[in-house]
Amino acid sequence: MQIRTALLRGGADIMLEAGQELTVVAVGDAYTSWEGYKDEATGETKIGLSYAKLCRDVKPGSMIKIGDGQITLEVRSGCHGVPFHYLFRSQASASTVSAVLSPWRSR
C-alpha cells in the first residue's frame, strides 16, 4: 500500500520548520480533492494523508515519514475527539532546519 499526501491549496509548497506543530488529517480516498494549507498569518498548517486508518494505527510518540521519506513527523497527541485528526511535530536532523512539502502530482 502506498500512502500519499493530499493536494496542497493553490498548488503551493508548504514550508515546514523544525519543531513546528501541524495537523495531519486522514482523508482516505479524498486525497485527490482535499487540500492542505498553511495559513501564513497564524502558522496553522494542515495536510492530508490517503491512509484512512491513521488515527487507529499511530499513537503519541510514533514517527511517520512523508514526502518520499524526506520529512519525519512525530505524533504529539491523539485525535482530540475528532476522528482521524492528529497533531504532529516536525522532527529535523541536526543539519536540517526546514523542509518543503511540495504539491502532490498524479503519476
Quick structural overview:
It contains 1 helix and 9 strands. With 107 residues, it is mainly beta.
Task: Write out key terms for the chains shown.
single chain; 107 residues; mainly beta; M1 Pyruvate Kinase, Domain 3; 4% helix; 40% strand
Give a written overview of the molecule.
The chain is mainly beta. It has a single domain (about 5-95), classed as Beta Barrel (M1 Pyruvate Kinase, Domain 3). About 5% of the residues lie in helices and about 40% in strands. It contains one helix and nine strands. It has one helix at about 55; strands spanning about 5-10, 15, 20-25, 35-40, 45-50, 65, 70-75, 85-90, 100. Strands 1-4-5-3-8-7-6 form a seven-stranded mixed β-sheet, with no helix packed on it. β6 (about 65) and β7 (about 70-75) form a beta hairpin. The radius of gyration is 13 Å and the shape is globular. The two termini are about 15 Å apart.
Mean pLDDT across every amino acid position: 76
Strand tally is: 9
Helix and strand composition category: mainly beta
Helix content: under 10%
- Stretches where pLDDT is under 50 for at least 5 consecutive residues are 81-87, 92-97
The biggest beta sheet reads: 7 strands, mixed
At the fold tier of CATH, the topology name is M1 Pyruvate Kinase, Domain 3
Strand order, biggest sheet?
A: 1-4-5-3-8-7-6
Q: DSSP strand (E) fraction?
A: 35-45%
Number of helices: 1
The CATH homologous superfamily name equals PK beta-barrel domain-like
Note the run of SSEs as H and E: EEEEEHEEEE
Question: Which value, in Å, is the CA radius of gyration?
Answer: 13 Å
